[in-house]
Each structure stands twice: as structure tokens, then as C-alpha cells.
Write a structure and sequence with these properties.
With 1453 residues, the chain is of the alpha+beta class. Helices cover 16% and strands 38% of the residues. Keywords: Disulfide bond, Glycoprotein, Membrane, Protease inhibitor, Serine protease inhibitor, Signal, Thioester bond, Transmembrane, Transmembrane helix.
Length: 1453
């Protein structure tokens, strides 16, 4: 094979010394000579003839090339001619892919570099494609035909907030050569400290195992805490566990006496494979729990337990023996732990038995190993018995200090098997080597392996052996698939000087020809230490800094105009084992791969040592008229290799033990591409991040002349403060609660410090005394902090205002100080509410004005101080939605359908802006970026069969409706973002299988959207919905023409017969309009004739049973109006849709969306496609907002320069809001008033008597008998007598008590609770559906922050696609609500005299300030519960289940 752009060298040997030959070599393709060369070669010599590279225009890897060589003597007499086939090997470069990390969290940016080099390390410059694939193999992102700088291309990839978890793939393609790199995506948390175990990796069974555990923070300081060590003794498939507990202060020693279980494996002692089946390990697992925070991290190591103290291993021997020549090898004696041999060891001797057999003796069974019979009775230690009649040579040798014993054995002429037994003390080993090829002439040639390592430019002398008389020999040198050297040498030795081009492996072939024309040869593969020609170094201006300091990173390279790729990551535990960096070892290994054989050798086989194989193993093709023997069969390698290790640990323990668990996830600080310009040094000033940790800087360099270089030693920067504070504060609390400012002071100096800690005074909060909650002026505490230690302080405060409050804490000592600032949000109590009123302002003629009045009255139960209001104005129909693309609705979006709120609206915004010629780069960039993230997230919900469902493969089946929805949106998005074709084709293929013989589509999956998927007309709406998706793309419409036609006919028949559901009729009308069906006009007429239509506006009546009051219409009414508007536009009835346009525009919320996903998506699609009022060519409006004739609260000016700008003003609120809005000028605008307030939650605890506006029966109970953990039990069901008996996707938002968070796995997912999300302050449960049968959920909460006077928390359950189907309940902790400060903080507050709440206090009712509710004392079921807690906390769950029977719930009332 040959490589593109590379010359093709030939070695020509003229065996006849009496002639001079004119040699002509040429490469031919399709009868055309591509390159040729000729040379005169003297007989008896070897000469290198180099053909020029084949032109790039003639290269084709699909077709073979012919090498033709001819030799001519005098008078142009042809002496020989021969040819062979050559193939193009397109691999002429390598591409390395680097990422900043190996592990990512959702929402992070993946930084990517692709580095392409030639085999010699120099940059390979060519266009490159970079492709990102998710764990399912879906193509998420691609960049095509990227340019590079010195072979380096860089890109960034933004992960979505909800990507597929698992291993992602980065694939690069350069000239159709693909390289790949993996990175993983998962939830993970950076460890705060690291635990390391230092112990020998190999341990002798009879000794005591010793080791040290070190626990240090990332910045190097010791950790104080508790340590648990588990020893797992593994032997013969058995695991025995031993545990011990200790204190740790940075580090501590441990010891373990390994039990002797040899008696349990005595039955295996007679086996020659004893050591293979009797593997013995000690797994050491260490858990360290930090005293201050309770954080626990762990580490694990494996220790191999060996039975013998010494290892015997054979090295430096040939794979085959050659009769009548010398066999050389080395026996290496070493200790099990690689320590030097002692003087006592060197006084001992090693015994060798050498057996040369002239016949084969095979094991008669079908064993996978080919073993001579003499091994069958070999037991250890000691030497094996030798069969009678077999000559044995016994050697007793002394042991040198280095343990290397040379072996030199003269082989007999008839030898076929050479066996060498070695025995030393308790260990032994055996080496067996056989003949591979037997020469017909009995002549052999052999290269003796050199003992010293080869070095570049250092002469190498190879000793040669032969049993025939020679005057000279010929030689060849091959490396990286290239013939580098050839010539002749004297027969006893060969002297060569290795060059850089030989590295990292060279194959040296020597050969000669006997008098009867037989070629005799041998080949030797020799490693040559390879080094990269280029180098780069990094150094910090200082090696220890404080957070936020400015430091310089100095970059030094070997030559100017170099490109340096710099990566600086957080050094977390074992970070060097979990990187995705480019390392020197990686590059050298790849460059070495070009030196591998080009011959296809089956895995697990060994090429024989016949003359042909000697050349073949070097990757050479031979053309000759001499005798050239080739063995017909290849042998299994077990004879040579497996027997070599039949002794005990004869592998010399060269292989590393399997690594322990890796738990680190390094974060990125710097990712820089620097061009050094005309200099060889560059200094980069950078600001150190706030993290107290260690940063590790690595780099590679690339230059045109020297190629790639990798940094030898990473540059480490330690960021550390010897004295600092940290604050533990929640993100938010509720007004009326008391918050503890939890301050932890760390002192890592070598002496104790007296520290004054001060919380800055503020108008936003007040300090609280320890005993009676009265206002205090004390905001300063003094505390002594020991050396290398930390101390916690508590400052109780009472917030005085709503909104954000700034908390600033200062710690001062005589030698150091620190200041920390944090912000806490103070929220009003009660339930959040909002109201929006939109006014459509339109002035056709300039010079006129229009005035509208807007009023709002706050309800009587409004929470004081929670009221706020704003007014907005924008000059475009989609203006509010364009501004709110990040979050259009106030609802979670964690399932496959709801996630599309991140995707679909951006399509319609982009379509609208393009169609109306209003597009600008920033808006389109934002929209497409959201589409890319949404696409990435949505693919995590695609199932293996191509369908989509709410929760992907965890669902029992795909969803017809959701698959159609996603398909339609993906097809619409293709003009803006990349959508992989296979994603679409697989979805369509699955979708059409859901169609029945009548043309209707059915739903095999769960009902997610009850109006669209359920009811008597369910097949109609679902079929119409699927038909819309199939009609979105012309190619799929044609491919599945019959399915489309059947669906159209089904809908036409239903329209003719009459569709009872207004919702289904709206969808059918639009689907038929898209299909250009004549029935669409009939369906539209039926819609317009409905009783619910008035002046072109929908006022459909429907049952409000179970629906809560709201200013917004039902979500289904929004959808119906949107489909109607789409149908009007499609049927060219534009004038009839203007009223609908205004109506839909006025129903949006303050975020720019509607109530749910489907109504928002369809409404925005209809608004974007209806362009009757989208013109902005003539707009110049002045809008004035007055609360009284002379009181103006806001002014807006909208013209052609800012009509897309979403302008807003905050206004003051009173019990009533009255606004007069006046617009003057010309054009169109949307004016909106948004009001926000909280309603008091009084009366919503547990059960609500009034059920007229309820959908769900909802019960919430809190069991709070532990200071740090509480249990929340929630039961719900759908009330009977409603218009539905089952909801679709339902969400339950569980508000958490202030200071509490959901414990890890605190809510179990199952067939009902499909997913749990934990945004700050709440837990969101995704329920597949809710029926009239009660379901219950248990949640475990833990106290993360210190808060007293805890207010009520709220639980809300609602139907996602009809949010007005909702029920609200509150719950509270009675004793935390009345708890005094001293009862909580105890010893942390000196003035409290150690007062602290215990579990016994809680159970007995003696908590200070806590009065048990009357009902709690008078119901046996509660009393029984508390009794259960006192007797056995393990029975808690059972008691709760009993409590939550319907009978006990009834008793509670």
C-alpha cells in the first residue's frame, strides 16, 4: 500500500554478481503510466530506487494500481519482469479531538478543538466537518467545511437544560476520514474535598497491609471529620467484609491483617493454573464525613494479594527457535513489589532446566492450549519431573543485583521444541519456544536482539548468526509504511544509525541467497524512543494567589508564528484520569500506529519465521525469481506466550492494576487559542475566579516547521485564602419569617485567631435578640477560631421589606479580613396571582386619536404589600411574544410535549419576521439558538421505534398525537436549523402505522391532551392533527399519498355527517383546508353558523364545572380560535379574520404566551401567518396613560425605528386601578396592563368545604417530629360528577417550607409520578393522569437553611392543558411557626444558654411557644402516630399509610 503525497521507495537487489542491470520501475493505472524511474544496478548489490508521489488528480482508493519492474542486460535483453498490485491507503493524517472536560452538566457549553497532523506531526491543512451526536445517535449539530489555522479548528456547542443523558459523540471528517471523541452528560456536583488512599498496589499474603488515608480540600488544606474504612477481601469468588471507624484530621494511617484462606483453595493447588483461578484482592473503600458541613466523599482502591515473594519472567527472546543457532534470552528476577533485590537475595542461586525435544508431543484432548506432555505433572515450587529419555541440561546461576540473568543456549540441528524451566525460592516459571519454519537446505539466518535501547543518531551494531558461509548480507529498514534504507553489510554484524524517521518502530530485515537460489532471511522489530520536535511551556507569575487576584500566564514556544491551545481546569480528585485533553502519549501512540504492519494478520495469530513472513511482517511486497519459501499455516500463539506465564506472577507485574472509581468532574476556567506572532513568548493577564481550589494549565503548540508539541509538565496555580468566610443562606424566604445568617469562619493559619464578625446594619432587616425576639442593636460577635479549623456563628434577622435584601458580613482579625455579600429574596405570603388586560389600538388616519379605559379592583383577600402593576406597549402583533421567547408561559416544561414551548414559537416568530421583512440578526439568532436547544432536548423523548412520547423510552408506547406535533414542528424548522432526516423519516414511518382501515388514526399511548385525544369525536381531532403534520412536507405527502388520501376521506365523511365537537370541527376544517379539500368550505360554513360565533368572534359555551375563575378564556377556546384563524387565512377569507386576530392578541399573558403549550403554539402560528395588520411601514403613535385627567403615569412613542421594542413602565397600585389610555398619530399598537398580587391562603389548609370550583380532592399532611427532616404526605383524586373522568398530563407543584429542600430521592417516581423537578423552593411532580381513584405521594424534606416562624407552604395540582382545572391547599409546621430563636439555635447562640429543641420535646408537646392543635390531642390516630415514633421510627411509613385511609381522613374533620 502507498499513501497520498508520499514517494514510493523500492529496494532492488541483483543476486547475480556478474551482471549490470538496467532496472525500470513504473506504476500503471488503466494502461496509463503515472510515475516511473530507472537506474543501473551493479550485480551483487542492493540499491534504493525512489518513485515520485502519484499526482493527487490520479489518486483513487477504489481502484488498484500496478507496480511493474523490469530488468535489462546488455543489448536490451530482458533479464526479468514482474508486477504486483498496490492499493492506496487514504490514511495520511490523524485528527485529535479535544474538549475542555469529559463530563458535562445540562446547560453547559462544550468547547471543542480538532487538531489534524501528518504522520510526522506537522499540521495537516484541509477543510473539516464537525458533527455532534446524542447518545441515541441522532445528529444534533453540524459544522461543514470549516477552515483551520495550522490544522486546528475550534467550535462551541451549547447543551440544553434537559439533554439526553449518557455518552455523546463528537465526530470529525477530513477528506472522508472520520475521527470520534466521547463526552458524557449527566447531573453531577463538584466535590469540595478529595479523599486519597495510599497503599501498595500489590501485597504479599503473609504481611500486614499498611496504608494512609488523606482528606484534603481542593486547595490543599486538611479535612477534619469521621472516617469509615471497609475492607472487602475477595478470593475464589467469595467476598468477606470488614469495617472500622476512625477520626481523621487531614490524614491517618491504617493497617489490615489479611486473613489466610489458603485452606479453602487447597483443591486447586495441584492445578497448573492455580494462580489464574485463585485470584485474591483487597478492595479498600474509605468514606470521610466532614465535621462542619456533614459532606461525605469516598475513594476506593484495589490491592492484589500475591502468594509468592518473587516474580520470574523471561525477556528478550525470539518468537521461534532456529536449529543449529544460538538461542538467547534474559531471565528477570524481581520482588513482588518491584523493590531492589537484597544482599541476601543475591547470595542465592536460580536453577534452570533446559530441554531440547526433536519431536512434538501434544495433549490428546481438545484443550484450547497446545501443551507438551512433560508439563502435565509440573507442580510448584521446585522443578518439574522430567520424562525418561529426554536430555536435560541443568544450569545453576548466581543472581546479580539487577536480577537480569543472560541465557545463551546452543541449539541442536534437530530441535523442534525448546523448554526452559526456572526456579528461585518460592517461585518458578517456564518458557517454551518452538521452530516455526524448517529450511529445505537447513540454512538459517538470525538477528540477535540488542540489549540496549535504540537512540536516534547513535550507531547501532546488530550481531548476526548463520550456519552457512557468507561474504555479505543485504538489509532493509522499514518504518511508518515507508522503505527508509537498504544496502549490503558484512555477514557477522550490521551497523546502522537510527534516524528520526525510524521512530517509533523500525523493522530491520536481513537476507541472503544460497548457492542453489534459496532466500534465507530474518526480521527484527526494534522500538526507537520518539520525541515530538516541538515544545511549549506554561508558567504562572505566582503559584499561590487569592480569589479575584490578577495573574499572568506566560506561554513559551520553540518558534514564532505558533498556535497555542491552552486549557485551564479545576483540579478535582483524579482529574488527570477523566480529562478529554490531548496528551503527549496519545500523539506518540497515534504516530506510532503508522509504523504498524500494513499486512492483514488475523487477530490472535503469529506470522511464521519463513523467509516470506520476514518480509511480510515488515510490510514489504517482494518481487523475485529466487526460491522464496512461505509457510502455509499460522500457529496459535498460546504455545509461546501462554506457557511463558504458567509460573506464578511471571508477568513481572508490568500491567497496572485496575483503577479505582473516578468521581471528579473538572470545571473549565480558560480555553484560549493564542497566536504567538513574531515572538516566542506571550504573557496573558487573567483574573482568578472566586473558587478556592487548584487550577491546572495544559497546552499544545502547532507550528508549520516543527509540527505539534505537548506541554511536559502542567502549570499549577493554587487559589487559597488562609482566612475566609462562607454564608449559608436560602435563595428566598417569606415575609414574617426569621432568618438565621449562618456564617462559617475558616482559619488555616498555624495559630488561633480572635475574630470579630459583623453583619452590616440595613434598613431592609432588623436583628433579633436571643430570648424574646425583641429588636436588638447587636450585630457583632467575637469568636476564637483554632488553627487549621473552622467555627459557625448564627445571626437571627427579621426582614422588613419585600423584594431583595442585601446581607453583608465582615470578619476581622489582627492579620486578615474577609467580606462576603449575598442577596435573599423576601416574598409575600399567600398565593401568587396575575391579571392582564390588552387593548388593541389602531389609527388608520393620522391626526386622529383613540381613547380606552381600563380598570381593575384588587380582591378583599389581597396580601398587603404584594400588589404591583405595569403597563406595556409594542407596535407589532407578535411583539410581546418576540420579547418573551425565553419563557412564554408560567408553567414547567419537563416532558416531551411541554418542551416544545422552547422550540415551536421560535419557528413562527422567524417565519413572521422573514415574511414581513422585519428580520434582524439578533432576533433571528436568538430564535434559532432556542430552536437548536429545543431540538436537542426533544430528541431525548424519541423512542427507539421513532415515535415520541411524554417521557421517551420509559413510557409503554409512543404517542400518536405527540409524534405528529413534533414531526410538524421539525418540518417547519428545517429552513432555520439542522434537522436530521432519519429523525423525521422514522417518526413518519411509525406514525402511518397507527392509521386504521377507515383512515382514522388511533392513540396507542397515554392520553396527554384530553380534548384533542379523547371524547366521542376523538378520532376526528386526532386524525386532523396527524393530517396537518403529513401535509407539512411535499415529499412525505407524496410518499404516503394513500395514507393522506384515506385520512382526508375520513374527515370529509365526518364533516358531511356532522361533527358534534366544536374543537374537533375546528381542527378538521384547518386540516381539510391544508389538503385543498372542497369539504373545507363546508366545514367552515358549519363553524361560522355555530351558535357560539358572534361578529366573527368565538363565544362558545362549555361547562365550567370544576374550573377555577380566570380572566383568560379556556385553553381549548384559544386553540379553537387559532385553528379558525388559520383556516380563514388558508381559504383566503382574510377580512373575516381581523376580529379573531384582535381577540387572540388580547388574550395573552404578561409573558407573551397563553396558558399552556398547545394554545400558545397554535395561537402564535395563527398570528404569524395572518398578515392583515402586520404592516409597519406607516407607524407613528404617541400613547399616554393617565390615572386622573391631570396625572400621567406613562408615555410611549412607537415609530418605524422601535415598533418591535417591548416598552414597559411600572405604575403605583391602590385598592383600585383605573387607567385612561390615549393614542394619537397613525398606526397600530398593543397596549397591556399587567397586575400581580398575592391572595391570603387562609382556609385552604387540608380540606376546603366549598367544592363548586374544585376539580381535585387534595389532602396534605405534614409529619414534623425531627429537627432536620420532615415527611409530607399528599393524596389526591379527580372529583366525580365532572365532565371528564380522567385528566391528561397533570402537574403537582409542591411548595417547600422555607429553609427546607427535597431530600435526594425524596419523592419516588413510578407509573403515576413520572418525573420530579426541583427548582428553588418547590418540587414539581409530573403525573400521567389523575382519575377518581385516589393516589398518594410521600416526600421527604431536609433542613438546608435555618429559618423560624415558618409560614404556610402551598400545594397546587392542575391539568396542564386546562390550567383552570386546579385545586390549591396549604400546609404548615405548627411548632416551627411558633418556635423561638433560642429553641432553634441552642449552643450557636451564647445568650440562649444551650436551649435546644429535641425530638422528645417535639413529641411531648413541650416545644417552647408551641401549642398542639385541639384536634391533635383528641384523635387516637394522631396519638397512635406519635407513640409509633417514640417506640420505633421504622414504623413511621406504616402509621402514615393507616392515617391516610379514607376513614381516618373523615375522622380528622
Amino acid at each position: 500500500m502507498f499513501q497520498p503525497g508520499a514517494s514510493i521507495p523500492l529496494s532492488i537487489t541483483i543476486l547475480n554478481k556478474d551482471v549490470e542491470v538496467q532496472v525500470i520501475a513504473e506504476i500503471v493505472n488503466s494502461n496509463q503510466t503515472l510515475v516511473s524511474k530507472e537506474s543501473k544496478i551493479q550485480g551483487g548489490s542492493t540499491q534504493l530506487l525512489v518513485l515520485s508521489p502519484i499526482p493527487d488528480s490520479e489518486l483513487n482508493s477504489l481502484f488498484p494500481y500496478m507496480l511493474v519492474v523490469k530488468g535489462y542486460g546488455g543489448r536490451d535483453q530482458m533479464l526479468f519482469a514482474n508486477s504486483t498490485v498496490l492499493y492506496l491507503n487514504p490514511r495520511m493524517f490523524s485528527t485529535f479531538i479535544q474538549t475542555d472536560k469529559a463530563n458535562y452538566k445540562p446547560g453547559q457549553i462544550v468547547k471543542i478543538r480538532a487538531v489534524s497532523i501528518h504522520p510526522d506531526g506537522k499540521p495537516y491543512k484541509s477543510k473539516i466537518d464537525i458533527i455532534i451526536k446524542d447518545p441515541k445517535g441522532n445528529m444534533i449539530q453540524q459544522w461543514l467545511s470549516l477552515d483551520n489555522v495550522l490544522g486546528v479548528a475550534s467550535k462551541e456547542f451549547q447543551l440544553s437544560e434537559n439533554p439526553s443523558f449518557g455518552n455523546w459523540t463528537i465526530a470529525t471528517s477530513v477528506n472522508n476520514v472520520v475521527s470520534q471523541k466521547k463526552f458524557s452528560v449527566d447531573h453531577h456536583v463538584l466535590p469540595k474535598f478529595e479523599v486519597q488512599i495510599k497503599t501498595p498496589s500489590v501485597h504479599h499474603r503473609v504481611d500486614v497491609l499498611l496504608g494512609t488515608v488523606t482528606a484534603k480540600y481542593i486547595y490543599g488544606k486538611p479535612v477534619q471529620g469521621q472516617m469509615n474504612i471497609t475492607y472487602l477481601h475477595r478470593f475464589n469468588g467469595t467476598d468477606v467484609r470488614y469495617d472500622t471507624h476512625k477520626q481523621i484530621d487531614g490524614s491517618t494511617d491504617f493497617s489490615f491483617d489479611v486473613p489466610d484462606h489458603r485452606n479453602m483453595s487447597e483443591q486447586s493447588n495441584d492445578s497448573v493454573f492455580e494462580d489464574d483461578v485463585d485470584d485474591e484482592f483487597i478492595t479498600i473503600m474509605v468514606h470521610v464525613t466532614e465535621s462542619l458541613t456533614g459532606l461525605t466523599y469516598h475513594s476506593t482502591v484495589d490491592v492484589t494479594v500475591v502468594k509468592r515473594r518473587y516474580n520470574l519472567a523471561f525477556h528478550g527472546y525470539s518468537s521461534y527457535i532456529k536449529p543449529s543457532l544460538n538461542f538467547t534470552a534474559e531471565l528477570k528476577i524481581s520482588t513482588y513489589n518491584k523493590r531492589p533485590l537484597t544482599g541476601e537475595d543475591q547470595q542465592k542461586t536460580v536453577t534452570l532446566l533446559v530441554i531440547q525435544q526433536s519431536s512434538w508431543s501434544w495433549v490428546p484432548d481438545n484443550s484450547e492450549f497446545i501443551l507438551p506432555r512433560v508439563l502435565l505433572n509440573f507442580t510448584r515450587p521446585g522443578l518439574p519431573p522430567v520424562p525418561d529419555g529426554v536430555p536435560v541440561q541443568k544450569l545453576v546461576l548466581t543472581v546479580p543485583a539487577d536480577g537480569l540473568i543472560p541465557i545463551n543456549i546452543k541449539l541442536s540441528d534437530e530441535v523442534k521444541i525448546l523448554t526452559i524451566y526456572a526456579s528461585f525460592e518460592d517461585s518458578s516459571n517456564v518458557l517454551q519456544v518452538c521452530t516455526g519454519y524448517r529450511s529445505l537446505s537447513q540454512f538459517y539466518l538470525q538477528i540477535q536482539k540488542p540489549r540496549a535501547a535504540l537512540q536516534v543518531d547513535v550507531p547501532l551494531q546488530l550481531m548476526l548468526q548463520s550456519n552457512l558461509t557468507l561474504t555479505e548480507i543485504h538489509y532493509l529498514v522499514m518504518s511508518r509504511g515507508q522503505l527508509l534504507s537498504s544496502g549490503t553489510s558484512k555477514p557477522s554484524s550490521l551497523t546502522l544509525t537510527p534516524q528520526k524517521s525510524w521512530a517509533p518502530f523500525a523493522c530491520i530485515v536481513v537476507y541472503c541467497v544460497t548457492s542453489d537460489g534459496e532466500i534465507v532471511s530474518d526480521a527484527l522489530h526494534v522500538p526507537i524512543k520518539q520525541v515530538l520536535q516541538n515544545n511549549v511551556s506554561l508558567s504562572w507569575s505566582v503559584d499561590r494567589v487569592r480569589p479575584a487576584d490578577v495573574v499572568s500566564l506566560k506561554v513559551s514556544v520553540a518558534e514564532p508564528m505558533s498556535l497555542v491551545g491552552i486549557l485551564v481546569v479545576d483540579k478535582t480528585p483524579n482529574s488527570l484520569n477523566t480529562h478529554n485533553d490531548i496528551t503527549k502519549e496519545m500523539v506518540l501512540e497515534e504516530m506510532a500506529s503508522y509504523s504498524m504492519n500494513n499486512t492483514d494478520v488475523p487477530a490472535g495469530s503469529v506470522i511464521m519465521d519463513d523467509p516470506y513472513s520476514a518480509f511480510e511482517t515488515a510490510g514489504l511486497v517482494i518481487l523475485t525469481d529466487a526460491k522464496f519459501e512461505r509457510m502455509g499455516e499460522q500457529m496459535s500463539p498460546e504455545l509461546m506466550e501462554e506457557i511463558q506465564f504458567l509460573g506464578n506472577e511471571g508477568n513481572d507485574m508490568d500491567e497496572e492494576q485496575k483503577p479505582g472509581e473516578h468521581r471528579d468532574f473538572p470545571e473549565t476556567w480558560l480555553w484560549l487559542d493564542i497566536n504567538t506572532g513574531d515572538s516566542t513568548t506571550v504573557e496573558v493577564p487573567v483574573t482568578v475566579p472566586d473558587s478556592v481550589t487548584s487550577w491546572v494549565a495544559t497546552a499544545f503548540v502547532m507550528s508549520a516547521d516543527l509540527g505539534i508539541g505537548i506541554i511536559d509538565a502542567p502549570a499549577k496555580l493554587t487559589v487559597f485564602q488562609q482566612f475566609y468566610m462562607c454564608l449559608n443562606l436560602p435563595a428566598s424566604i417569606i415575609r414574617g419569617e426569621l432568618l438565621f445568617v449562618d456564617v462559617t469562619v475558616f482559619n488555616y493559619l498555624d495559630w488561633a485567631l480572635e475574630v470579630v464578625v459583623t453583619v452590616a446594619q440595613s434598613d431592609f432587616f432588623e436583628f433579633v435578640l436571643w430570648d424574646n425576639d425583641e429588636i436588638s442593636m447587636t450585630n457583632t460577635r467575637q469568636v476564637s477560631v483554632g488553627r487549621q479549623n473552622g467555627t459557625s456563628l448564627l445571626f437571627p434577622i427579621r426582614p422588613l421589606v419585600l423584594g431583595e435584601i442585601d446581607i453583608s458580613v465582615k470578619a476581622l482579625t489582627s492579620v486578615a479580613s474577609d467580606v462576603v455579600r449575598r442577596t435573599v429574596q423576601v416574598k409575600p405570603e399567600g398565593l401568587e396571582q396575575s391579571f392582564s388586560k390588552t387593548v388593541f389600538l389602531e389609527l388608520v388616519d393620522s391626526g386622529k386619536s383613540i381613547s380606552r379605559d381600563i380598570a381593575f379592583t384588587f380582591p378583599a383577600a389581597v396580601v398587603k404589600g404584594s400588589q404591583r402593576a405595569q403597563v406595556t406597549a409594542v407596535g407589532d402583533t407578535l411583539g410581546p411574544s418576540i420579547m418573551g421567547l425565553e419563557s412564554l408561559i408560567q408553567m414547567p416544561y419537563g416532558c416531551g410535549e411541554q418542551n416544545m414551548i422552547h422550540f415551536a414559537p421560535n419557528i413562527y416568530v422567524a417565519q413572521y419576521l422573514n415574511a414581513s421583512r422585519q428580520a434582524n440578526h439578533d432576533t433571528l439568532t436568538k430564535a434559532t439558538s432556542y430552536m437548536i436547544k429545543g431540538y436537542q432536548q426533544e430528541l431525548s423523548y424519541q423512542r427507539l421505534d421513532g415515535s415520541f412520547s411524554a417521557f421517551g423510552d420509559s413510557d409503554a408506547s409512543g404517542s400518536t398525537w405527540l409524534t405528529a406535533f413534533v414531526l410538524k414542528c421539525f418540518l417547519q424548522a428545517r429552513p432555520f436549523v439542522f434537522i436530521e432526516g432519519s429523525v423525521l423519516s422514522r417518526s413518519v414511518a411509525w406514525l402511518v402505522t397507527q392509521q386504521g382501515v377507515d383512515g382514522a388514526f388511533s392513540e396507542p399511548g397515554r392520553v396527554i391532551h384530553t380534548e384533542l385525544q379523547g371524547g366521542l369525536d376523538g378520532p376526528v381531532s386526532l386524525t386532523a392533527y396527524v393530517l396537518m403534520a403529513l401535509l407539512e412536507d411535499g415529499s412525505y405527502k407524496n410518499i404516503y399519498a394513500s395514507q393522506v388520501a384515506k385520512a382526508v376521506v375520513f374527515l370529509e365523511i365526518k364533516v358531511a355527517l356532522g361533527i358534534s365537537s366544536n374543537y374537533s370541527l375546528c381542527l378538521a376544517t384547518y386540516a381539510l383546508a391544508l389538503a385543498n379539500s372542497k369539504s373545507a368550505v363546508q366545514a367552515m360554513k358549519q363553524l361560522m353558523d355555530l351558535e357560539g360565533m358572534k361578529d366573527g368572534l368565538p363565544s362558545w359555551s362549555s361547562s365550567d364545572m370544576g374550573l377555577s375563575e380566570s380572566w383568560q378564556p379556556r385553553s381549548t377556546h384559544i386553540e379553537m380560535a387559532a385553528y379558525l384563524l388559520l383556516s380563514i387565512q388558508k381559504l383566503s377569507m382574510v377580512e373575516d379574520g381581523f376580529a379573531l386576530l384582535k381577540w387572540l392578541s388580547q388574550q395573552r399573558n404578561h409573558l407573551g404566551g397563553y396558558a399552556s403549550t398547545q394554545d400558545t403554539v397554535v395561537a402564535l402560528q395563527s398570528l404569524s401567518q395572518y398578515k392583515a395588520c402586520c404592516g409597519s411601514e406607516h407607524i407613528d403613535l404617541y400613547i399616554t396613560v393617565n390615572t386622573a385627567p391631570t396625572t400621567t403615569v406613562a408615555n410611549f412613542h412607537i415609530d418605524n425605528t422601535n415598533y418591535l421594542l417591548y416598552q414597559s413602565r411600572d405604575i403605583e397600585t391602590r385598592s383600585e386601578i383605573f387607567l385612561n389610555v390615549t393614542a394619537k398619530g397613525q398606526g397600530f399598537a398593543l397596549f397591556q396592563m399587567n397586575v400581580f398580587y398575592n391572595l391570603a391562603s387562609t382556609g385552604l389548609a387540608r380540606r376546603q368545604i366549598d367544592t363548586t370550583q374544585k376539580t381535585f380532592d387534595l389532602h396534605v399532611e405534614l409529619f414534623d417530629v425531627d429537627m432536620y427532616y420532615v415527611h409530607l404526605y399528599i393524596c389526591t383524586r379527580l372529583l366525580e360528577g365532572l365532565s371528564i373522568n380522567q385528566t391528561g398530563m397533570t402537574l403537582m407543584e409542591v411548595g417547600l417550607l422555607s429553609g427546607f429542600e427535597l431530600a435526594q430521592k425524596g419523592i419516588k417516581t413510578n407509573d403515576v409520578v413520572r418525573k420530579v423537578e426541583t427548582p428553588p423552593g418547590k418540587a414539581i411532580l409530573y403525573l400521567d393522569s389523575v382519575t377518581t381513584e385516589e393516589i398518594c405521594v410521600e416526600a421527604t424534606l431536609f433542613m438546608a437553611f435555618k429559618v423560624v416562624k415558618v409560614q404556610d407552604a402551598t400545594v397546587v395540582i392542575y391539568d396542564y392543558y386546562e390550567p383552570r382545572r386546579r385545586t390549591v391547599r396549604t400546609y404548615t409546621s405548627y411548632w416551627r411557626d411558633n418556635m423561638e430563636v433560642c429553641s432553634f439555635c441552642g449552643k450557636a447562640c451564647p445568650q440562649c444558654d444551650g436551649q435546644e429543641v429535641s425530638e422528645a420535646d417535639i413529641v411531648s408537646g413541650s416545644v417552647p411557644g408551641y401549642v398542639f392543635p385541639h384536634s391533635l390531642h383528641h384523635h387516637a390516630v394522631y396519638g397512635a402516630f406519635f407513640l409509633l415514633v417514640i417506640i420505633a421510627c421504622g414504623l413511621l411509613a406504616y402509621g402514615v399509610k393507616y392515617l391516610y385511609t379514607k376513614r381516618s381522613l373523615a375522622n380528622t374533620e
